[in-house]
Specification:
349 residues; alpha+beta; Major capsid protein gp5 fold; 2 domains; seven-stranded mixed β-sheet; six-stranded mixed β-sheet; globular
Length: 349
């Protein structure tokens, strides 16, 4: 579990956010008075319906701590284009073609061309996480409970966002979102789908040729900012194995403020939402390569709101807290059957 506050002022932040949790989640009158006298606001969020008058908006310090955890663990969020949404539905521009140049004779008119643009629609989807906390809280446990709340919520949201971005199939299970593996395997984006060599259906059998074919399957403009996206199983059994046997090289360097391993010069971004199995993965998407910023957008409608219920887990002497956010993940630059896009997916044969 990560400590969500550090450095100068950390103790004060832990106290303020701990008191806010005591007031908003544990409904302690003493903590309510403390927050009121010190300017820690308990702002209601309309229609967040578990508390009698709606849930509470998470204060900036705790919201940022949750965001930091979410950003740390979320592979998709780390690399996608983040788009603030001022309303429930937002359209953003996408460049699909550029201007052209021509050779012209003297005194001849120059042919006109224009860049081509279309629209990507983002529609905010509400997602939530239900977290259990002990019903009693000791004063000296405030830092621990703040860390627990921020880590549990941040990690849960990161995992759901990754699941939608990589595995989404357009159904309600994924909030109607479609992920990379589904796009690559739908029969309309053949350039996005790369199949490993015959017999290479486990992470222990993939070789440098398979990975090279994956790199070769994205368009040239995607290479400069590209990354590998894989599970820790793929990282250990493929990338570390190949580097250890001389098939590649690895080093660590900061990416997005996080110390990150690199293979063949590209960062390796880990996610638990790509396959973790050590056995055969026949016909399954194994890992992803490309420029997620060019390929995807993550719309963000609003920050977190938290609501509590002392009754949900009454028999277990626990309090339920529900935290919600509204987002929309769209994978959009995936090419087609003839043209490469900004992402490619390696499938087991």
């Amino acid at each position: 579990m990560r400590h969500v506050f550090s450095g100068p002022g950390a103790a004060d932040k832990y106290e303020r956010m701990g008191k806010w949790i005591c007031a908003a989640i544990y409904a302690q009158n003493k903590a309510l008075d403390w927050c009121e006298t010190r300017g820690v606001k308990l702002t209601k969020a309309a229609a967040e319906g578990v508390n009698s008058a709606g849930g509470f908006l998470v204060p900036p310090e705790l919201a940022q701590a949750i965001i930091d955890v979410r950003d740390y663990y979320g592979a998709f969020r780390r690399r996608a284009r983040l788009v603030p949404m001022g309303s429930d539905i937002v359209s953003i521009d996408r460049r699909i073609g550029g201007a052209a140049t021509f050779f012209n004779a003297e005194n001849a008119a120059i042919s006109e061309t224009n860049p081509n643009w279309d629209k990507i629609d983002l529609s905010a989807k509400k997602m939530g996480s239900l977290v259990r906390l002990p019903s009693e809280l000791e004063e000296d446990a405030l830092p621990d409970i703040v860390d627990a709340v921020a880590n549990e919520i941040g990690f849960a949201f990161a995992q759901t966002e990754d699941d939608c971005a990589f595995n989404g199939d357009g159904t309600s299970k994924y909030g109607g979102m479609t992920g990379c593996l589904q796009w690559a395997n739908d029969g309309n984006h053949a350039k996005m789908k790369v199949t490993a060599a015959s017999g290479h259906n486990t992470y222990l059998t993939l070789d440098s040729t398979d990975l090279g074919s994956l790199i070769a399957s994205v368009k040239a403009s995607a290479v400069a900012n590209a990354a590998w996206f894989c599970s820790q199983t793929a990282f250990g059994q493929t990338f570390c194995r190949l580097a250890g046997t001389g098939g590649g090289y690895m080093f660590n360097a900061p990416v997005d403020g996080i110390d990150t391993p690199h293979y063949l010069g590209f960062p390796v971004i880990l996610t638990q939402k790509l396959p973790l199995g050590t056995g055969s993965l026949t016909t399954t998407g194994m890992l992803v390569f490309g420029d997620m910023y060019r390929a995807a957008a993550l719309g963000q409608r609003r920050s977190f709101a938290v609501a509590r219920s002392p009754d949900r887990y009454l028999d277990q002497d626990q309090i339920a807290i529900r935290v919600t956010q509204r987002i929309h993940a769209v994978i959009h630059d995936v090419g087609d059957n003839s043209n490469a896009g900004s992402l490619a997916v390696l499938f087991a044969p």
